[in-house]
Amino acid sequence: MGDSLFEGLPPPSHQQQSQEAEANDISETTKRQSSPVPAPTKPALKSALKRPKPVETKPDPEDAAAEKVSASGKRLRFKTTTDASEMQVIEAMKKIASHIKTPTKFSKASKLAIQLIQAGSIKPGTSDHFFAILEAAMSSTTSCTEPSVRADYHALFSAAQDAAECLNMKQKNQLATWTIRAVVANDLFTDDSFVFSKTAGRVKDAITDLPVATKDDDIEEAASLNNKAATPDDFSEREDTTSGAETEENKKDESDPFGLDALIPSTVKKDERAKGKKDMPAMVRKEEEEEKKRFLKSQREALIFCLEIAARRYKTPWCQTVIDILVKHAFDNVARFTSCQRDAIEKLWASIREQQMCRKQGRSVNGKLDVNGFEWLQHKYAGEKISIRHSVGGSGDRRASQWLG
């Protein structure tokens, strides 16, 4: 046998070969006509984690406004925000300033002022009128630490910190002093030990930041106390002012009886103007120094006010350690205060030390025995006889053992 498998088979006929060739030609032509361009292959589907997120189209703010279409096809727009003009804001601030002085109206007026702050109505054009509100609030007959208005003062001056950028330097200093009285001092009335300790730390930091008091500060303090003690009569002041005005008018009449000096241009006025321009920087520096002294004076008074409030809370047991540290810190930095304030701090520290001695002796601020539950039980069972047989014969008389035989 040969190697070929088709060796014994007859050769293919000519007709079969022609049919196969025609079938191949038809298939090729149909392929060319049906698909002249090869179809692109479809990409494989990605998982949901790898697919890009569809871009969300944000609605137009104008279309988001409340709109309705009536039956006639007209659009009805509803205005959702109201923009008050600067004059309207100023008028509102004037009304608030007039009502905030009244203690019964303070709560409502302070909330309206906070709404103006939150709405962003405090601007350079309205900052003076807003400061007038704060000034009227602090000039009220009611103290900012009264229980009825304590929370409202705290909220108002806490919110006022957001509008401090629009104030000038003098107003910022005054606001800082008022904040110590209205916010820091009111935080010392809290029932939260954490808040009380944190507030005492703020007072300590403020005391540390004070400069050392000078002799000029003591002299100014003594002069201000003398001015307060000696109140002159209004009638005498009026007489002095009227007599001074009359003497000035007489001098003018004698020097210029016909009033010709006003018509003749003189070089003296020019010299005075030039001198005034040269003295402007010196005047500005003098005003800045006076403002700095006034700010330090009011800041020291506010911190003394906080120390007095803290000392009143010494009866509360969990406040005592914090108050000891606070008053001791003020006593160590007593040189940063003026003479009268130094005396007040020394007296305050003396009273705190006396109360500390009472605590060490086991007595409270009221003089009564100050012991806790453990100390009371310790004192009670100090003289009791305890048996070595535990519960048998609690008083040590062995009655139970005798009864048991």
UniProtKB/TrEMBL annotation:
Residues 1-73, 223-261 are annotated as: Disordered. This is Nucleolar/coiled-body phosphoprotein.
